[in-house]
Write a structure and sequence with these properties.
single chain; mainly alpha; 2 helices; about 85% helix
């Protein structure tokens, strides 16, 4: 299951998948299966990064609002 992966777990799994695909020597079916898994794991990574960006943006906006209120 990909939904319960931490960012670090997903990133590490994606690295392992890419390394295995790049090494070659896999059959077509195994390559396709790894590619599909890689797509799912990459989506998890992107979701984590998008969530982190939203949190950072919210924190920056809150800090700017606080600074504006103090002036």
């Amino acid at each position: 299951m990909t939904d319960d992966l931490t960012y670090e777990q997903a990133r590490d799994e994606l690295i392992a998948i890419v390394t295995k695909l790049e090494s070659g020597g896999l059959g077509l079916e195994e390559s396709l299966s790894l590619w599909e898994r890689g797509e799912k794991v990459a989506t998890v990574c992107q979701q984590w990064l998008d969530g982190a960006r939203q949190r950072l943006d919210a924190a920056q906006n809150a800090a700017q609002d606080t600074a504006s209120d103090e002036t």
